[in-house]
Amino acid sequence: MNTHFHAIIPAGGSGTRLWPLSRRATPKFLHDVLGLGRSLIQATWDRVAPIVGEDRVWVVTGENHFDQVAEQLPHIARGQIIAEPSPKDSAAAIGLAAMLIAREDPDAIVGSFSADHSITNVDEFRLVIDQAVAAAETGDIVTIGIMPRNPATAYGYIETGDLLGLDGAPTARRALAFAEKPEASTARQYVNSGRYRWNAGMFIAKASSLLDILAEEDPALYSGLARIAEAWDTPDHDEVLSAVWPGLEKRAIDYVVAEPAAAAGRVIVIPGDFGWDDVGDFDSVARLRQPVPGEPRGVISIGGNTDLLEVDASGVVFSEGPRTVAIVGLEDLVVVDTDDVLLITSRSHAQDVKKAVSVAGERGLDELL
Amino acid sequence: MNTHFHAIIPAGGSGTRLWPLSRRATPKFLHDVLGLGRSLIQATWDRVAPIVGEDRVWVVTGENHFDQVAEQLPHIARGQIIAEPSPKDSAAAIGLAAMLIAREDPDAIVGSFSADHSITNVDEFRLVIDQAVAAAETGDIVTIGIMPRNPATAYGYIETGDLLGLDGAPTARRALAFAEKPEASTARQYVNSGRYRWNAGMFIAKASSLLDILAEEDPALYSGLARIAEAWDTPDHDEVLSAVWPGLEKRAIDYVVAEPAAAAGRVIVIPGDFGWDDVGDFDSVARLRQPVPGEPRGVISIGGNTDLLEVDASGVVFSEGPRTVAIVGLEDLVVVDTDDVLLITSRSHAQDVKKAVSVAGERGLDELL
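Predict the joint structure of the above. Result:
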């Protein structure tokens, strides 16, 4: 265990494509979306804490979710749950966490791991992260590139270059560029080329390297975060936070750090194939929970004590109650049965669930959001 | 108003294709399936009572439904609700009612009208029934033939012959034969020939004619019913009923009366096109409630105070509660949201709902049936 390696878990985002399971008050990462007995943030903790050590895990989340995070993660020090007064995207969240960590450990290496992703092969994940930490010793920014399962248009891509032959990171390559979510035809070219990998949004770097780039690329954001970090453990904490935070720019860490670093030839990519999924919508959930190909597909129940009656049907049912759910003649259905909302859609329309949330918002049904 | 014309409303059948709305304890005819403010049996009363007069309407139903029928039809004399100890199909039900009516009115003409059908053009229905009553004066059995909307395989057909030129029944024709529910190819031939009409299961006849045929075709059933009718208003009622009823044969009136009469050239058919539907499944319900062709189709809510959020969706939602129902990217969906069962199917699979009921039965989930 590298005692300078710290994990940052950004726990934000509303997860509207997983509505009405995921709500403003209880977003996706707080739910056991996959029905495996642990919420997504708990599963993230379970993966990451054994790698970095429990006392080197940090969570950045909205202040309205602080108590729920603390309750779900009983072994985290409350001082390592960083509460944001409002969402300011990942550059502010990760930047602030990196500063607070670097204050305590100037030689820190930080790794950022989303609170709401799924990884099925944790042993392989660990081996990949070990390589990433070794590669981060170079001072470069290290990211993980996932082998594309299909020409997805929902993910950004990383163009990979030559093997670097680094000690402790034998599969590390130079990252030539980050590409934003592509059109379908471009995505096919990427996948066919064999040179592109999905950007899973994981970054591993020396805190000092990351903060140097942040200072250079966005001095205003950097200095704002520095003021907050300086006052963090002082009586001025609340005053400085409420004075500075609202004025911070909302920017993604990808734009502020990763892309400039790639352009300067300072990003390394470690190929990682460990069953990563961003659990972005109910189609992801169904894919992660359906039986393996070749086995009969049916209806899978997640949560609750739901009895299922299925006739020529397949899909997933999320239910909080003990009602019987009967599905007749529908394939790849998605049903979410909560106390106040019943959602019915199909796996192929899982992306459109956010439209229903928009409609609910337009109608002023705020209690459902 | 013909003061010898009496209506019999057989109110039986479990309506499993409308489960979980329709249950053993509260079958289809007791529900406002179409969301029009009246249950199907109430709507039948509303159609029929003005034609025959309120004091000449009789209902035959299971004894476990007696109280609910009496409550839903406050203007019917309780003595004209005939309670069956167990289901014995339509020959016993209509035969017994005809006997009880004939005892009071030997010149009675009886008309049998199912408790769970829908008719949209009641004025036209009344004109057709007026013709049927006139035609029944001949002593023949009169039935109503519905113009087929499509080559349905779910209905029996009536083969029609020549116009008869009867007084008061100008469109009456000879019925050549009854045809059972056909195969699809046969149904297409029927419809293309122009000579076949749907058998809507309505019969109008002199009670004496109907009972004569019953006596001839099924003497055992006739004599059983006669013993029960004789004891009906006596202290022996319960004893005779419980001794005789269980032994009665289960037979449909079509086989015992209509088909033999047709073979003997004694059935008349009145063509009737008044928006008849047997409300057999949720596809029927959706067709009866969807907007007219050309108008935008959406999701229709029946019952409850359900809010709907629809995105690229159409279909019907039955809901008992005030939950919001969101449907995303599914066409012709059927959702039935009851306290203990949630059913989801499509209009095209509406016939298969009975399979889910079978599965529930096989699993011993009797409380859901």
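The mean pLDDT of chain B is 94.
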